[in-house]
Amino acid sequence: MTQVDLLDLDASLTEDERQIRAVVRQVVDDLVRPHVAGWYEAGQVPARDLAREFGKLGLLGMHLTGYGCAGSTAVAYGLACLELEAGDSGVRSLVSVQGSLAMYAIWRYGSEEQKQRWLPAMAAGEAIGSFGLTEPDHGSDPASMATRARRDGDDWVLNGTKMWITNAPIADVAVIWARTEAGVRGFAVPMDTSGVTAREIARKMSLRASLTGEISLADVRLPADAELPGATGLKAPLSCLTEARHGIVWGALGAARDCLETALTYATNRTQFGRPLAGFQLTQAKLADMAVEWNKGYLLALQLGRLADAGKLRPEQVSVGKLNNVREALAIARQCRTILGANGVSGDYPVMRHANNLESVLTYEGTSEIHQLVVGQRLTGVSAFT
């Protein structure tokens, strides 16, 4: 039960789901909250150490089956993302990119040899993965990617650049998407391959407790078995994004909840004009509106999770969730900042950090505008992308 649960939402969860949530909440309290403000300020995070700890708990690729993965439900995975992002969006991104992008791509589209090579180590947090789709000049339009893979005898040779890639500076393997004569294909690229370089992107004002990089590929020669044999066409990487966006739908609620609970505590304890801030009508109106939106977002996430567990979740439904929940979470963070006044911009409170992070979450894995067009196409039957 959380302070902002107005609708007895816990009753909608199974006992196993509540237990998984409690475990993740505890590990965030132990490993993340005491340190995350410092990580954010320094722009550094002990990602490998965190990955190993998360691996011990089965959080990496937790919704996948086999190869050391926990095989949990989509709802349980969503609850884990919520608790992780209540700590920090960057920490949730570490888990999400590892499990729902890099591991999922190999799990769904890789060969048995690729799965055996990478997935157990990634599930344990001993190997870190990244997902190379976005490029410097091609973000929302991945169909225009410039990265190319060409055949040279039995080998593949890759050239191109990927940008804004989470985990890239420390990754052991990157799932790289490239255009070939036969269309878009995916490759499991060991990061120690000759011609592969990763440069950390510095001076970020958001997601500072997350490692983000640029991957350059200069005549990178790979054996034929580096190709993901099941990945044909752009639908393959897009399906991975759908998988990851489901975690974002839940994760954004975690950041919003942390802001809202911080504002509630602050408003109750802070006295102005002889009474607690919580006793003023304008403050209560803000808190009520935010709590209502949070509960609506939770119900939306839960519905999507149940659809996913039933094998019925469609991409445009995930777009509804990502569009609504991230947008509302950012609005909640901004509104909570006003309740804290000047203290709202202090690193002693998590609200501005969450607000800054959510600016990135609003953009990555599909901007709000892209998701609006996905929903619009579903409603009208007409594509507005071109």
CATH-level-4 superfamily name of the largest domain = Butyryl-CoA Dehydrogenase, subunit A, domain 3
What is the C-level CATH assignment of the largest domain? Mainly Alpha
Into which percent range does the helicity of residues fall?
40-55%
Mind telling me which CATH architecture of the largest domain this is?
A: Up-down Bundle
- Which quaternary structure do these chains form? single chain
Counting DSSP H or I runs of 4 or more residues, the number of helices is 11
Describe the strand arrangement of the main beta sheet, using strand numbers.
4-5-9-8
Structural class: alpha+beta
Tell me the total number of β-strands.
11
What is the CA-based Rg, rounded?
Answer: 21 Å
Measured distance between first and last alpha carbons? 46 Å
- H/E topology pattern: HHHEEHHHEEEEEEEHEEHHHH
What number of structural domains do the residues give? 3
Main sheet summary:
4 strands, antiparallel
| Poorly predicted runs | none
Strand content: 15-25%
| Arithmetic mean of pLDDT | 97
> What characteristic shape results from the CA principal axes?
globular
| Fold-level CATH name of the largest domain | Butyryl-CoA Dehydrogenase, subunit A, domain 3
Family: Belongs to the acyl-CoA dehydrogenase family.
InterPro entries: Acyl-CoA_Oxase/DH_mid-dom, Acyl-CoA_Oxase/DH_mid-dom_sf, AcylCo_DH-like_C, AcylCo_DH/oxidase_C, AcylCoA_DH/ox_N, AcylCoA_DH/ox_N_sf, AcylCoA_DH/oxidase_NM_dom_sf, Glutaryl-CoA_DH_mitochondrial
Domain Acyl-CoA oxidase/dehydrogenase middle: 130-220
Keywords: FAD, Flavoprotein, Oxidoreductase, Transit peptide
